[in-house]
User: What shape does this take?
Amino acid sequence: MSNALEDVIVLDLTRDFSTSLSAAFLADFGGRVIRLEFLTAVDQADHQLAPTKGTWDFEADLIHRNKQSVALDPATDKGRELLVELTAKADVLVTDWMMAELAALSLDYASVSRINPEIIYGRSSGFGPKGPDKDLPAIDELASARTGMMPILGQPGEPPVYTGAGAMHNSVMLAFGVVTALIHRQATGEGQEVDTSLFAANMYGASLDIQAFLAIGEGDRFIHPISRLDVSNPMSGSLYPSKDGRWVTLTMPDTDRWWPGLAQALGIDPEDDRFNTHDKRCEENRLELIHLFEERFQTQPGSHWRQVFDEKQMSADVIGRIATSWSWTIPASARSRAWGSPFS
Amino acid sequence: MELDHPSFGKVKSLGFPIFMSDSPARLQSLAPCKGQHSGQVLHDLLGYSEDAINQLTSDGVIA
Amino acid sequence: MTKALEGIRVVDLTVWFQGPVAAQHLADFGADVIKVERPKGGDQGRGVRSIKALPIGDWNQYFLVINRNKKSMAIDLKKPEGQEIMYRLIEKADVFLSNMGLAWLEARNLSYDKLKAINPRLVYATNTGYGRFGGVDKPAFDMTVQAITGAMARLGEPGQPPIYLGMGSGDAYGGIMSALGIMLALYQRNRTGEGQYLDASLYGAQLFLAAPYLQSFLAGNAKSALQHSRKMVENPLWNVYPTADKWIYLCAENTDDAFARLCRALGAAELAEDSRFQTVDGRRAQSEALVAALDSHLEVKPHGDWLEAMQAQGLASSPINNLADVAKDEQAWQNAYFTKAYCEEVKREVDVRGLPVTLSKTPGEVATLGPQLGQDTEILMMDLLEYEWDEIEAFKAKGAIP
Assistant: This one.
């Protein structure tokens, strides 16, 4: 067994969950990731996550695992010299600091690339390296708010929803960009800057909605939340409450394939001529079918439906809280993955 | 996956989202303490001697 | 300009979204991505006709954007002759990517062992739904997977239905995760000469999509799995608020100073003096009252007024925009998060989702939108696979290619 990035030295100058996790991915796959920590605050804005005393710092062990830590004082000449020596040795630098902070420590790309032209300099910002908002703080909530999805995720009349998914997209995007640049460097020896932003990441996570809006360019269904009782396909992307209040979700875009089995499970005649074609189900009699599903799913508890879906290997599930999903929802296959055994 | 924490015993943590057959992700260590590897990195990456590292530590340049 | 992944050839045997978008990231950075499709109908994504019950428009933006910068070969892989063409393609490839089930691949003699024997340098990547182990082989669609990771159940106001993170958001995540895995394996391959097998499952990726909450839950914080109301938050200065027109997101630390500045921005002297809200702990303990008070202040004026006032006080805040706002967001256009591309189907430039990752010296680009089904079959058979024309005719006669 080897490590994919075993010859790669990464300097980790990050403070946010998203970017720190990005560097952790590089460490997980064998990069020597050296976290730079400073003994004197370099800026008032330097709000490092305060460790919670006496309890497991689960967050740190997720986002800083497999890393090394070097603590130095950049206020001293020798401390700054050490920074230069470290940058000279590094293959990659990953940061989420503001431009001005980086420049103050001569850790901006222009300074770093003078010392080490082959370095891959990965930076994540709030809104990207260009444009009027390039210096806004890198806060995922602000980026998410700009992405257009928050107003339409919930039910009509409900507050906008922040999911936090954008920050996770950003972690992987930055790592992807860095390794892509490393591959280019393998071929050519050339270093460069890699940029991602929380805004870009949130937009990427919303790809299908955003692209559809760009192309279709109108439609209340993109601007206002769609009630779960008005979904475009009653058998896909839909939610129905079961008898005990647990939610059933169906993902059967290809309704022809699933209709007979689902109809039977719900006590509906598959040949019922209101619903016996895809078009009837998804267009002509869509609302009628939604209401019928709504009524039928409430006749049995979630556990019943889960059993039905499992038996028929249907693309549907009963939504658990995390708590329940960990104990019995996760397929055995996935559990072994989540618990890590395939990786040892 | 389950991991063995030096202070808190067995704890559960997220594993790795990508499986690779020949170069799998591995958990080698938990989050480092601040400055845990200062000496080591200065020595094996930058070539500082033990004496020089001790001097830098007592001067407060590293910790 | 050179491309980061110039010279990397990818055989893209994927359908719908997660697999195709993984290959799209590679294609954006210059990899030669050859999409292999069944001759009849191709990738099912070609058949998408409506989104959210709205007609898709005069061009299939679902398929064409996800499959941009790619070539297409139509090969019937059920036929041994089709597999023979595939093998020759694999000899010339660096990466094989598929999001078909493992049984499906096995049935077409495209297992890892088979392809590795043909090309030991090959990076063989799959996107299984639930991981490679055990007997789960049911189709894994994004929402189903989100449902079981618990990502949905913690969102929304208490009592409201669970919330889907958005159409395809999990697929998008699995896609970039897969692209990262492929890059890691390629980097390694370039050093050692050995390819390998990798899998980025939709399920494994989605566990990370819920990472901040899941890790907290695993650490024993059961509350992180539950829905939380915006009316009662840990820090009322970090919350969504309605104004006279749209909602805003206020992101300020719960400090005395930030609270004083907020009160100034709102012109709310009485709030600044309210004894309940004088301390960090007070604002936390009385969050329900404070959120209600801020709600009633903010409701009276439009968001523009408030954002200006907050900005003047150095408070971070943002309008909560809708898709119509983002479509014209200058910031998105200037950073090429949106771009324009020529669409053959309608013979005009169209607006497309751009490049979320920027490489300064080898930037990605959107050179072409998705290919026509099988448009490159013959040319690649001749130029890349070096078949003679009569051999190609023979493949056609056998129905291996159209």
